[in-house]
Design a protein that fits this description.
C8orf32 fold, 2 domains, 12 helices
């Protein structure tokens, strides 16, 4: 089940595992590999740094957390004009940090990354929270903020409403949903967004690339191994498809979709 060597994936793996590189740098490398081969990462980092310095220069020295967050919100969303992309939410480019900086619009996860990065310039320790379907920010002192909605403070009822809207009323808010997520988890979440977007537009080669980039971070992820098998099948790579699907069944023998996967394997064997 060994994938073909891809120098870009090899470079990605070395980038992701390099502890000296931060989240912003890794997000920009992701964009360079998938959509922007000529992207100047250092130049993009400088753009974000310049926004942060402008923020720092506009803020009056203060130790008050709520005050500093209000200044960050005013600067980023009012003065700079950043906002959540309500009209074209599922545009895959909203997952690329350079696009978000250029267009001043994005989705919860990319705006949260930018928000937390800029907060560092005014000594804010902002944590990225992997809330289901809607990444948010924990600002300290029980402050939960939503960069997608101009840094609005969220109540418990607001969080429950997000869950109801996306998963139905049977899903209840639990403390684990408010845990901080790691750099690797953030990158995987972005790549899963992109994998889905590319697959929906039948760009299976790009979708497979996203999947491979996830597996470079988490090599035994059952969902990605299954999806690799499904997509290889769509590209008529029947032998590779069977190998991935069998591996998925080894990892998840009691998965809910076992019957579906077994039927896929049966169909692939007819063509192999």
């Amino acid at each position: 089940m060994k994938a073909e060597f891809d120098p870009f994936i090899s470079e990605w793996k070395s980038y992701v595992t390099n502890s000296k590189l931060n989240l912003v740098e890794k997000c920009l490398k992701l964009a360079q590999i998938l959509e922007y081969p000529n992207l100047d990462i250092e130049k993009e980092i400088q753009k974000i740094s310049n926004i942060g310095l402008a923020l720092k220069n506009s803020v009056i020295e203060s130790k008050n957390l709520t005050y500093k967050i209000s200044l960050l919100n005013e600067f980023l969303f009012e003065k700079c004009g950043f906002n959540g992309d309500m009209e074209d939410y599922y545009n895959p480019k909203n997952n690329f940090l350079n696009h978000v900086v250029e267009q001043k619009t994005g989705i919860p996860i990319t705006l949260a990354i930018l928000y937390s990065e800029l907060g560092k310039h005014i000594e804010l320790d902002l944590k990225i929270i992997g809330f289901p379907s809607h990444v948010i920010i924990e600002g300290g002192e029980e402050l939960i903020l939503d960069p997608f909605n101009k840094g609005r403070r969220l109540s418990v009822d607001d969080l429950q409403e997000i869950l109801f809207r996306n998963y139905g009323e049977e899903v209840e808010l639990i403390p684990e949903y408010l845990n901080e997520i790691t750099t690797e988890q953030i990158l995987i979440r972005i790549l899963r967004n992109l994998k889905s977007s590319y697959a929906e537009s039948y760009a299976y080669e790009k979708s497979i690339k996203c999947n491979t980039m996830i597996l470079a971070i988490s090599p035994n992820s059952p969902d990605e191994i299954r999806d690799m098998g499904i997509m290889e099948g769509k590209l008529l790579h029947h032998k590779r498809s069977i190998e991935y699907l069998n591996r998925y069944l080894e990892l998840e023998p009691n998965a809910e979709d076992v019957d579906f996967i077994l039927e896929l394997i049966k169909q692939m064997r007819k063509h192999n």
